[in-house]
Amino acid sequence: MAKLETTLNGSIEQWAERIETGILEGSVSASLEDRSAFRSADGSCRCLVLVFERYSMAGGNRVSLNVTLFQDATGRIDCSAITAGGSQAAFFKLNTLGEESFLDCFQALLENP
């Protein structure tokens, strides 16, 4: 498992679109498995969850990337991205290169507009 947490500025919808487009165009095997959206009762806070999956050549298996975007009433967006599924061992983690690579691709999307 690899994890990245950061704060973003701007529109939560634009970030979600940028992330989705970047992940799907960045890998032939990438897919958006599902997404979920929530809004507070007063509409001041929003939460978007995106779940991606792609094939990892390094690990010879599929790896998932779960992205959560939370925008509070001030407009600040907290972002959490967690990868999973890249290990081949039964009881402990071996070969997490696929997870780390997927997270590196995600981080590059955030850093390069």
What is the CATH architecture term? 2-Layer Sandwich
Q: Care to count the β-strands?
A: 5
Order of helices and strands: EHEEEEH
Distance between the termini: 26 Å
User: In CATH's first tier, which class applies?
Assistant: Alpha Beta
Mean pLDDT: 89
Shape: elongated
The largest sheet is: 5 strands, antiparallel
Which topology does CATH recognise?
Answer: TATA-Binding Protein
Number of domains: 1
Q: Which structural class fits the helix and strand makeup?
A: alpha+beta
* Separate helix tally: 2
Main β-sheet, spatial strand arrangement:
1-5-4-3-2
> Which residue ranges are poorly predicted, with pLDDT under 50 across at least 5 consecutive positions?
none
A few lines on this structure:
With 113 residues, the chain is an alpha+beta fold.
Please characterize this protein's 3D structure.
With 113 residues, this protein is of the alpha+beta class. It has one domain (2-111): TATA-Binding Protein. It contains two helices and five strands, in the order E-H-E-E-E-E-H. It has helices at residues 12-26, 97-111; strands at residues 2-8, 31-39, 46-56, 61-71, 77-84. Strands 1-5-4-3-2 form a five-stranded antiparallel beta sheet, with helices on one face. Helix 1 crosses helix 2 (97-111). It is elongated, with a radius of gyration of 15 Å. The chain starts with a strand and ends with a helix.
